[in-house]
Each structure stands twice: as structure tokens, then as C-alpha cells.
What does this fold into?
Amino acid sequence: MVQTNAISWFEIPTNDIERAAAFYEAVFSVQLTPLDMPNIKMRMFPVQDMQTGVGGALVHSEGFYNPSDSHGPLIYLNANPDVQGVLDKVEAAGGRVTVPKTEISPEYGYMGVFTDTEGNRIAVHSVPQG
It folds into this structure.
């Protein structure tokens, strides 16, 4: 079986899920969908097709997640058509840009890194159009 994507789901830890949701909605110009269960709260990112796409959510569950700007995995969120458009919104939404727009290579595009309102290190990536 060949996988369409290496990642199928991601979760970004939060201390204050409403603050985090406001940050990501402002930075990515999206509407997150609430999903609250007895022991976990989620705000899910939009995805067109859960069978073939990559989904993810902001999550809050006491004692299970620890936001970090230096430890753990680094996820790259889609910032097409240009990472600069996302990075330009980070500080106004309460985050901090830690790696400015940087070219990976002409064919692989650009990346950048920010710290969100919860203290997580998150990367963004865009691929050249055309």
C-alpha cells in the first residue's frame, strides 16, 4: 500500500484552547470546528477529504500535552501560495516569528517558523506556483 501523505493527522497542544483557536484562525484565515469530549477539547482545522487529505486539530487535555518551542516534533503547516503572507500575521495575532521566510531550494519552495500563543514551535511551508 502506497501512502498519499506521510502525515495523516496532527495535534497542536494548547493551554488555552480558545486563545489558540483565535490565533490560528487569524493567522491562517480559517474557521476551526469545535469538537469537545469529556476528557479532551479540540478545534479542528478544515480538510476537504479525510480519506486522502491531512487533518489536524488544536487540543487541550489536562496533563497529556505540553506545548514546547524547542522539544518534540516540528510540524509544517501549508502556507501556500507564500509563507510570507502567514508570517506577516503572526505577531499581530500574539505569536513570534523565529525563522523568517527562508528558501529551501527553487523546486522545494520556502519555509518559516513561529512560536504560537501557547508556546509551540510551528513551521510553515509553501511551494512555488507555476
